[in-house]
Amino acid sequence: MHSRLSRRGFLAAGSGLAATAALPAVTGCALTSTDSDPDTLVVHTQLGTTAPGSPTYLAVLDRFREENPGLKVKNLINGDDLAQVYETSRLARKEPDVVMVNLYDKTLAWTDVGATVDVKEYLDDWGLRGRVLPDALKAWTDKKGRLQAFPYFATNWPVAYNTALLERAGVDSLPTTGDALIGAARKLRAKGISPVTVGGNDWTGQKLLAQIIQTFLRPGEAEHLYTTGDFSGSRGAREGIDYFVSLRDAGVFADKAQGLTSDSMTTQYNTEKAAIQSSMSSGLAKVPAEVARHTEVGGWPLAPGAAHDRPTILRTFTLIGLWISPNGVKKLDAVRKFVRFLYRDDVVSRFITESGRDMALHSTSTSKDFPLVAAAQRLGDSVSQAVVPDVYVPPVANQPLITATSTAFTRGTSAAKVRAVLETAYRSA
């Protein structure tokens, strides 16, 4: 697996790159000489604007400042371009001390090329191992045994069903099989209701496609598939793609799904234009109360002969971690205070109760004000868990896979063509 962020790239570009070269204009992203001040902790995060959990994060950050009056905190905020901005600052050796971002795409290579450090010894030295869920520790540990970041946010990713719309169309139970889903889609369309809305032109469609392809794959087989991209050589993958195509051409997905995004998907579901969506817990937290009251969460329906015995959901513990940079190691005492603060029971509880976030840490708190998030947490053994492909897909194949996903959601595209475009995305890597 290769990343566009390579050790060679660092060595070639590191000496001559200006500190702020190519940095987008974002909140707090000007790099100054105060960033090297041992009494100033620089945190780079996606939290702080409209990202779910941002109000809670800003509130707990204020609390941290109050409890540590001698320590200044500079908060740098980026959206989807955070990884690129961080890499640019790292090339100039002016990177922030702590980075809050997920394990995906570019970040998969960070620890391996020295852009961030192994935090395993800090987890133990700071007495935090017992705070982390075992599955989260496993997810954040690479093949060399390095803990790439302190696990923090997790997410459940079930399927949301608007039972009021289903009942209006004459569907009296949640579909658990492909045939039942196709039947429900026909009844919904007859009432002018879109069946399954999905962002077929972005990451939401990519994840749902990956989930459906896994219908006939065991977890180990799915991991191998998304590492190699051998969609034609895997019998289970071929069957999964055939299943996806049969659902698509039967009208299960929203019209022109290949052009929809996560925003349009969310809008369609939340305004009750569509009856079904695959939604991660941060999206479930945004479902309006009047819609949530007649929404049930479950899994994705299965085909006969599936490798799973229950409808599937996605679940991941790598949504946000606390990464430490080489500059952060120089301010280790400040970093320790920050990480230990965020790991406190009361702080973790605030993210759960105020923002409806799933956490990678132990907590007895529940998302009472976010009923769909809480319901997803209770699904337990009623669903089976499919593999989230993020940590297996080669980083440079991620964006080509989005393009391939759009092609896959285009009605009439053959299963052979879907396999071909998916494999082409890997060959571009």
UniProtKB/TrEMBL annotation:
Supply the InterPro entries for this chain: Bact_solute-bd_prot1, SBP, TAT_signal
Quick check: keyword Signal in the entry? yes
Pfam families to which the protein is assigned, alphabetical: SBP_bac_1
UniProt KW keywords: Signal
Q: Which organism is it from?
A: Streptomyces tsukubensis
Q: Which domain of life is it from?
A: Bacteria
> Which protein is depicted?
ABC transporter substrate-binding protein
Query: Which positions make up the signal peptide?
Result: 1-24
